[in-house]
Amino acid sequence: MALLEVKNIQKAFGENGVLKGIDLTVEKGDVVSVLGPSGSGKTTLLRCINFLEKADGGSLSFEGKEYDLSRITKAEIADIRKKTGFVFQNYNLFANKTVLGNVTLGLTSARKVAKAEAESKAKEVLAKVGMAEFADYYPSQLSGGQQQRVAIARALATDPSILYFDEPTSALDPQLTAEVLEVMRELAREGMTMIVVTHEISFAKEVSTHVMFMADGNVVEEGTALEFFENPRMDRTREFLRLTSN
Length: 246
Ligand SMILES: Nc1ncnc2c1ncn2[C@@H]1O[C@H](COP(=O)(O)OP(=O)(O)OP(=O)(O)O)[C@@H](O)[C@H]1O
Ligand SMILES: [Mg+2]
What we know:
binds magnesium ion, four-stranded antiparallel beta sheet, globular, 9 helices, alpha/beta, six-stranded mixed beta sheet
């Protein structure tokens, strides 16, 4: 049984069809990179899968339960969200909370975990991303790479079954990008299931088990990372790889 299976997901903004019936299957331990040109629908796909945006149609099954995306309830969404984590391009940390406050919030508020227990879990995940010494800092006192590592710790704090990343390094310079990718690489090694929208082709090549290449709201090509990078079948994929690999 797949951890996550999305079938025929559709989304339009007004007349603009952005997801035109996309299928996606993620097994436990998979690292799926989603590639594609700007405007192809990558962010919209992730946002619809995590209900930050409402899909128009399609189905989603998660840990064995199937949902119709056009009529999923708030309670069902809340249940699924308890098992997922989302890492945004621009970190989205609360500026008025410390690092520790940002990481414990999802535990103490939505999950009613006691403060001491939440703080001990937060310290554990902060250590994992190399940010243990920064627990009392505010986001404005951190570099972008450090803020993003805190955002990853925040996502990890609730022990998610899957993590979604939307271009987690695109706001960072190369040095800070490397720090964040190293954390993600380590998560992959530990078997964390992830979907990563990224423009980092070398990272996708090295870390992903599967790749999905989108254009204009459709999947152009997908496959194992090896198949995709070593032997792309579609002209459009070859062209994309040629343009992005230098
Ligand atoms: N909230 C919105 N309202 C209207 N149109 C939107 C909205 N969000 C996205 N779109 C449109 O949907 C299309 C796909 O956008 P999306 O952000 O999913 O692309 P993307 O593949 O993530 O691009 P990028 O690589 O630039 O991040 C674009 O045409 C965009 O203008
Ligand atoms: Mg995007």
